[in-house]
Amino acid sequence: MDRHPQVGIIMGSQSDMDMATKAFEALKDLEIEAEVTIASAHRTPEDAISYAENARSRGITVIIAIAGLSAALPGVLAAHTTLPVIGVPVNAGTLGGMDALLSIAQMPPGVPVAATGIGGARNAALLAARIIALHDRSLHERLCEAVFRGNQKVKASRTAISEKSAAPEDAFSRE
Ligand code: RP5
User: Fold this and answer.
1) How far apart are CA 103 and CA 138, in angstroms?
2) What separation in Å is there between the alpha carbon of 122 and the centre of ligand 1?
3) Which atom of ligand 1 is nearest to the CA of 92?
4) What is the model's pTM?
5) pLDDT digits (tens, 9 = 90+) for 73-89
């Protein structure tokens, strides 16, 4: 397994750590190496820019950028690298994360950022995994297994529905 970090998880503040941990754990489950750091687009803009500029040559292939409030971090990183940047909006204030979601999603043409839902750190990790799996057959297999396990979990949860109201299993049959 490649021990070199392939995913850079960067957050705007230490207060975003829960989200970073979620993304890190999801990547770890798929045996994807990741590194975690903090740099703010507003408070330490030079660090954010340098991290983005150095990321590709350091072997990073996808950046996950986590930020709340006026979440400029994913966009600033995307402006300084051609690596794919996935932004995770955090609910960090009175607007419940809508502020961060719109800041991340409403990028101007030419500077793309993929936005997850508010608090979507796990999905950010899974999207990063899909991107990396384009050129990594063994990761693709692990990803397919994880998707299968997720599907099985949903199917198994049907048994919790009372027999009287449950739809029959043949409602899901495919010709
Ligand atoms: C953003 O402001 C950070 O990403 C964080 O979500 C939010 C609040 O930061 P702190 O005031 O907790 O450092 O830049």
Assistant:
1) 35
2) 19
3) 6
4) 0.95
5) 999 999 999 999 999 99
